[in-house]
Each structure stands twice: as structure tokens, then as C-alpha cells.
Amino acid sequence: MSCTRPAPSATASAYTPHVREVTVTTVPLLVKEAVHLYPFLAPDFAPGGVLAGKEVYAFVPSTITVIEGDTIHFTFVNPEDDAHSFVLPDLALALPGQSITHATYVARHAGISPFLCSIAAHLPMMSGQLVVLPAASMASAPPHAEREARDGS
Ligand SMILES: [Cu+2]
Question: Regarding beta strands 71-78 and 56-60, do their DSSP bridges make them parallel or antiparallel, or are they unpaired?
């Protein structure tokens, strides 16, 4: 089978899916180890405190924007000794402590999908969203619009 490109006139109105490299790091924010730095956290983590049984971590970045049809090459960096996970409606990955995990994900459908870490002590704070823009919305966009969508600006 040949692999010829369609004529330019045929591609002018169609979005060509991209492969996007996305690195997500799991970052501790208000965790028990931070009590030494922030003494006010001690009552927060105590029974009845606002963070009782919880710790606050973040996915960085927490909002990922791509275009429908794009392939995401994820690199997850978990630099600490606590395990995490990355869970989308149709993708679930364990992120062991002090590890780098790679995964490939195809954003097949436009929409906003929440993702989270499934470890109970990290919920509901450790979450984010995958924003998949409709391919049709990019068809006539100038090149810089696509870059802005990727960078979230
Ligand atoms: Cu977690």
C-alpha cells in the first residue's frame, strides 16, 4: 500500500492529529512531612482537623489540553516515596514511589474528562482534567491557535 499525501486542498479543512509529549509530576503540597515546615498543619492532620486522614498532592500540570484524535505520550514522574495512581475513565496506571512511568493514550473523543489519584487519602484533592477539543474547532484555526491550545495559554 502506498503512503501518498492527500493534495493540499484536501487537508486544508481537516485537522491532522499530533503526537504530544506530556510530562506529569506528582508533587506533595500539604503532606504530613510538611508539619515541620508549617506547624499550623499539626491540628489540621489531627482527628477532627480539616485534613484528618488526608494529604494534599497535585498533578503538575493538572489541566492537559489536546485535540481530538491526538496521541499523548505520557511520562509520569513520581519523585517521592508515596505511591500514586493516574486514573482516567479509560486508563488506569499505578505510579509507584520514586519511579517514572510511560503510557500512550489516544484522545478519541472531544470533551472534558476528570482524572484522579485513586488513593483514598489523596482524594478529592489529587485530581485534574483532560480537555479534548473537537478536531473541527481546529480545522480553520491559524497555526498559533494550536500552539496556544497545547500550552494552555
Ligand atoms: Cu496520590
Answer: unpaired
